[in-house]
Design goal:
The structure holds two protein chains of two kinds. By secondary structure, chain A is mostly helical. Chain A is built from 14 helices and no strands. By secondary structure, chain B is an alpha/beta fold. Chain B has a single domain, classed as P-loop containing nucleotide triphosphate hydrolases (Rossmann fold), CATH 3.40.50.300. Chain B contains nine helices and ten strands. In chain B, strand 7, helix 6 and strand 8 form a beta-alpha-beta unit. The chains are: A mainly alpha, B alpha/beta.
């Protein structure tokens, strides 16, 4: 496909998903009503729906989708493996464990999940502890393969913690429902606090990643050759690990573990537009945001208890298989 | 004249022990040695791609003081590994050689032509044969136009025509003043180089003109084979003109 058309096309896709995300739900609004409400005109009900409920939800979804897809691009280039995803190093598992720990143990420890900040902050802390472990390993000179295997071990460890907490809180229906939210992702009840918590930092992270596409190209074809061609691989590795893990941590903190976006979006866009990371990074940010908004829209349009993480997998899986067949 | 590349007491634990050498400009040097002798390690250490103890100087300047980008301009390294996970077009991979020059495209077309890759320019590197992939990474090293070129077994996977082309090119680069260090398994080809380094179990056991170094004795000790000399098993190889 012509790469010249990609940016406008993906931008348009995101704009449509953005407006649709503001328009659809229990109360359906027309496109003009949405635009009116956005600029502060129209009736107060649609203004409230758009400004207080759907806009924060949409912005959080947009940022989480962009962050996960961008992080996926970086992980895949970094590990020279198209199957790498943002959760590979245990960051999202850490985020989930942080939130789940507060949910399961909070009542008995007297830490109520009352404030809207408690869970995201706990999640960010969990994710950052995992991130810290990863960065420490990388700084101690762990090679790419050891980093990957450490991620596998860390994921298993953190997953075991979450499973344990899930088991001991079995029977507490309310707690379990909230835990499921973190494990399967979701954008319900997102507020402006969630927006401020995650969106500006994600935007900054994405902007910092954008100029690194050229160096990523070289790195994705081998660390030693990249170094020999003039890339400061040590510094680049550190920057990439920090940015990718922080983006994943923030996305998890505001939206829970949303599977598959970080794997399938970069991969699909690479199949269509080629592997050049200078293009793949911005494309994936736009595509990831649009994809996540579309999947969230599906959970609202078919209110049969679909979780966001389920939809991303159900929609992404078959689409991905189709692309793989076509690309052969 | 300042030597192009100098190493003293270069050591990589378990792989390379106390190697000292000086390579001048306009020198075409072969590195030979059995499998595991340390040829690749030596090249990676000289290129600054491996932690190694000992001193390395490029053009008289300590390697530790040369920033990453400047390194990419001064020395090109072609490794043995040519496995690609991502399907960049051949032309783009070769153009990566220009990274340290801000992607100024000078030399990319010549490098593609030199490695007979013009017709493959748009082909994704993931769809190339092993030999073609090695020609791509050699072309990338050429595209850097770096005055020091280190090639680790560049011809191991090439057919005879392309292998001869690589030798011809190496000779040409040296004649233009570059330092070219090439590791080889074909000892017969090494006789056509200006100078030969022999590595054995991580130590430099021979360094000098091919006929002086590659004696039947040394070949017996290092490679454990009996060698007989023939004048020219590789007749197309250009010999030094003097």
């Amino acid at each position: 496909m012509k790469t010249r058309a990609a940016l406008p096309l993906l931008g348009l896709l995101l704009a449509v998903a953005f407006l649709a995300s503001l328009a659809f739900g229990e109360l359906r609004l027309g496109p003009m009503q949405v635009l009116d409400a956005l600029v502060g005109r129209g009736d107060s009900l649609s203004r409230t729906v758009v400004w207080d409920f759907r806009l924060p939800r949409t912005l959080v979804g947009l940022a989480a989708g962009a962050a996960l897809a961008a992080s996926g691009v970086v992980m895949q280039a970094f590990f020279r493996n198209p199957l790498a995803d943002p959760g590979l190093l245990g960051v999202s598992s850490g985020g989930a464990l942080g939130a789940v720990a507060v949910l399961a143990l909070g009542p008995s420890l007297g830490v109520a999940a009352a404030s809207i900040w408690t869970l995201p902050v706990a999640s960010i802390l969990g994710a950052f502890v995992a991130t810290g472990a990863v960065i420490l390993l990388a700084e101690r000179g762990a090679g790419t393969e050891r980093l990957l295997l450490s991620g596998v071990a860390l994921n298993a460890l953190l997953g075991a913690g979450t499973s344990f907490l899930l088991t001991i809180s079995a029977g507490h229906f309310e707690v379990n429902a909230q835990i499921l939210f973190w494990l399967m992702g979701g954008l319900e009840n997102r507020s402006w606090e969630h927006v401020w918590m995650g969106v500006p930092a994600i935007l900054l992270g994405c902007l910092l990643l954008l100029p690194m596409g050229r160096a990523l190209n070289l790195l994705s074809l081998g660390e030693q050759s990249a170094q020999s061609l003039g890339v400061d691989v040590r510094r680049l590795r550190r920057k990439l690990i920090i940015l990718a893990t922080v983006l994943t941590a923030l996305a998890t903190a505001i939206g829970g573990i949303i599977a598959f976006v970080g794997l399938v979006v970069p991969h699909a866009l690479r199949l269509v537009f080629g592997p050049d990371h200078r293009r793949l990074l911005p494309y994936s940010m736009l595509g990831g945001a649009a994809f996540l908004l579309a999947c969230d829209l599906a959970t609202r349009l078919f209110p049969i208890g679909l979780r966001l993480g389920v939809v991303t997998a159900v929609v992404g899986g078959p689409f991905f298989l189709w692309l793989l067949r076509r690309a052969r | 004249m300042t030597p192009a590349l100098q190493a003293s007491a270069l050591t990589v634990p378990g792989r390379l022990t106390g190697v000292s050498l000086t390579l001048g400009p306009a020198e075409l040097v072969a590195v030979v040695g059995p499998n595991g002798a340390g040829k690749s390690t030596l090249m990676q250490a000289l290129a600054g791609l491996l932690p190694a103890s000992g001193d390395i100087l490029w053009n008289g300047q300590s390697l530790a003081r040369i920033p990453a980008q400047e390194r990419g301009r001064r020395l090109a390294w072609m490794g043995q590994e040519a496995l690609f996970e991502f399907g960049f077009p051949v032309r783009e991979v070769v153009a990566q050689g220009r990274y340290a020059w801000g992607d100024d495209p000078a030399g990319v077309a010549e490098a593609l032509a030199a490695m007979d890759l013009v017709d493959l320019g748009d082909r994704p590197v993931t769809r190339l044969s092993g030999g073609e992939r090695h020609r791509v990474i050699l072309a990338r090293a050429l595209a850097t136009q770096a005055p020091i070129q280190l090639w680790d077994e560049p011809v191991a996977q090439l057919d005879v025509r392309h292998a001869l082309e690589v030798y011809r090119l190496a000779r040409q680069l040296a004649e233009r003043g570059n330092t070219v260090l090439v590791s080889l398994h074909d000892i017969r080809a090494a006789y056509r180089f200006d100078r030969v380094l022999v590595l054995d179990r991580g130590r430099l056991v021979g360094d000098g003109q091919p006929h002086a170094v590659l004696t039947a004795d040394l070949i017996r000790t290092v490679f454990r084979v009996e060698a007989t000399f023939t004048t020219s098993l590789v007749p197309e190889l250009p010999a030094r003109e003097d």
